[in-house]
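Human: I'm a chemist; would you kindly supply sequence and structure tokens for a protein?

Assistant:
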Amino acid sequence: MNTENENAPGNARGVAPYENAPVRLDTKIAVLLREDLETWQRLNVTAFLVSGLGSVAPEVVGEPYEDADGTPYLPMFRQPVLVFEGTKEVLTAAHTRALSRALPRSLFTSDLFATGNDRDNRAAVRAVGVGALDLVGLAVYGPRNAVDKVLKGARMHP
């Protein structure tokens, strides 16, 4: 009779059973893109939108990577970034919901395609009131349920 507890940490195999269990995080990182963007714009906007998240939510960033030869690499997010798309109206509604829930967020407006540096990007956003922003992308981070509510009407990016 085997009396070993397979659920005990450090069982005979030397591995805690929960070590290999899927990790379900209670937070979500999501990017919502306007559906009419060109491919290069989608990639550029996504990269810009998520770039600041680690500075306001450092818990989303994991440990640095290292290959078998000891070459170091930068840390990345600990969780997937889910990418969605929607119409201009869906994006505007999502922005309003993200603001009302006070979720950490970043935005990208159509004006930013015409600027070439960070100072001009910030000036372009600052020049437009919240209700008149021509949004092409929005990133949000927060509790899964809250982010899901913000994204209502959006669909997963193909």
